[in-house]
Amino acid sequence: MYRKPVFLLFVSFILSALSACQNTAPNTNQTAVNTNQNQTASKEIPNRKWWKEAVVYQIYPRSFKDTNGDGIGDLKGITEKLDYIKSLGIDAVWLNPIFSSPNDDMGYDVSDYRNIMKEFGTMEDFDVMLKGFHERGIKVVLDLVANHSSDEHFWFQEAKKSRDNPYRDYYHWWNEEDGKPPKRVSFFDPEGDGWQYEPNTKSYYLHYFSDKQPDLNWENPKLREEMYSMMKFWFDKGVDGFRMDVIHFISKDKPFREIPAEFNGDFGKFYGSGPKLHDYIQEMNREVLSKYDVMTLGEAGATKEDAHKFVDEERRELNMIYHYEGVNLGYLPDSKKIIDPKGWKLSDFKDIYTKWDTNFAEKGWNTVYLGNHDQPRMVTRWGNDSPEFREVSSKMLTTFLLTQRATPYYYFGDELGMNNIKFDKIEDYKDIESINWYKQIKAEGGDLTQFLESQKIAARDNGRTPFQWNATANAGFSTGTPWLKVNPNYEKLNAEAQEKDENSVLNYFRKLVKFRKENPILIYGKYTLLDRENEDVYSYTRELDGKKFLVLLNFKPKESEAKTGLDLSKAKVLMSNYADAAASEKLKPYQAVILEITN
Ligand code: GLC
Ligand code: CA
Predict the structure, then answer these.
(1) How far is the CA of 129 from the centre of ligand 2 (A)?
(2) Which one of 91, 104, 299, 518 is the catalytic residue?
(3) pTM tops 0.70, yes or no
(4) Which of 19, 184, 370, 395 could staple 378 via S-S, CB 3.0–4.6 A?
(5) CA 172 – CA 194 distance, rounded (Å)
(6) Burial label, 10 (beta-carbon count in 10 A; 0-12, 13-18, 19+)
(7) Greatest Cα pair distance in the chain
(8) For a pocket test of ligand 1, which of 246, 248, 297, 328 has the largest count of ligand atoms closer than 8 A to its C-beta?
(9) pLDDT tens digit string along 533-565?
(10) For residue range 447-486, what is the model confidence (pLDDT) as tens digits?
(11) From ligand 1's centre to the CA of 29, what distance in Å?
């Protein structure tokens, strides 16, 4: 059970007294903030956990900071920026894969799980970085890519030598003499074929992703042992957790049968329902996770019901998972992220996030994100990246993320309001997903113009462009040629400029992180959706210990009105992305307000 130590209470008291003084000054800046809210003693909240209270900042190392001029971000770059990361007020970082890799899928194809990707540096660099984070009280979560390895991994190199090689069973094979294997779909194969022929041993191997990402055979206890011992290797170094890549895919439907009709088109669901999935995760928990004080986040794209199997405490599996329902809204069904010309409805958006909140209201714990390395920039996709509204809508989305009953996973660069680069031509893309879909559509004689237009909104590379540090060449990211183009708006949109501006997107993020941490109501308080049918404004309350906050978010570039049915006459504005915000249901374009409701 977590209690605030007495000296912290004292510090909080002093801080709140100070901020109360500051708040007597007239509010002339653009951001209304009142941090003097949290200090009333709250009743014991059951089952508090640091990872429930954390704000997790995701770093895509390749694009964060390059220190040796090769155009690729590196671990030394992260170390160089530790104070910046600390200044955000976040509690943990999740780093995309940093292990040895030929980078067919940017690190999600690991060729050595116990070494650092040469472009990123050395193990010594890693140790220095880890120590630097820990000295600043920041936890470090790595990415576990357990469903597949690289074809350049030693295990696979051995496995394809002969059918009786000791490593053969580390992967899934189908012998040529047994005929064509039953259809399996690959997400990154130009023909969409999940089986790749391997001539030396006259057999096919399974790859749900690219043919350089052969799927590992979790049915083999030796493979599982290897995985567990590798995880221990990192935990023994002091790593604080893992985000687990497509972990719902590790158990295969063996012996491979035809994909049942009900899964046609929904292959992800079929792949994600492997019969031994939860046995493996429970074993992993027994063998490894339970022995350390670490956190786990599964990328599990699960249904509501499946989600509980991963995270309910008594099952002893993982702490949290994340789903794709929110981020998939607004694409045509079963398409290559082709934008639905009808757009997306705010009521659908509310329904998804409300459903997931309700799902964990009694049991388990929720997560929330709008951006990550598989997504475009959140402001382009869910806000408005025009010069007029980019900043204000970024702040509005940040308000959404930091006021949900869920652990927020906040993607690097979103704290600056970085937006999509929107490449015109396929040659600018580096991501296997975009390149592969382009090839597929071309081969099918499909509509490439429509695809490229949709990619300007949807492509993953939009979220992977280098971090914009300052207005010098390449946004201060690198002195060489960046591996992926820098967004040309860096001269105006960069961290250095925003440091100097009290009302910047960056400083709004910092204030909101602090505000969330000071107000447990925003972490643990009950969530209630109001005014569901409103297609302009998303409104909800958060309640804890007789306290009630109301969050109003205008998702439209126009003045809009909420209809919450609440009496706001005595409500107090705690936070807003506009100066001198009023306690009103009338909202300015993309306005976000957090109110305290008092009767
Ligand atoms: C996950 C990762 C994604 C990667 C894929 C294959 O979805 O987030 O970036 O391409 O798995 O590893
Ligand atoms: Ca570098």
Answers:
(1) 15
(2) 299
(3) yes
(4) 370
(5) 11
(6) exposed
(7) 81
(8) 246
(9) 999 999 999 999 999 999 999 999 999 999 999
(10) 999 999 999 999 999 999 999 999 999 999 999 999 999 9
(11) 42
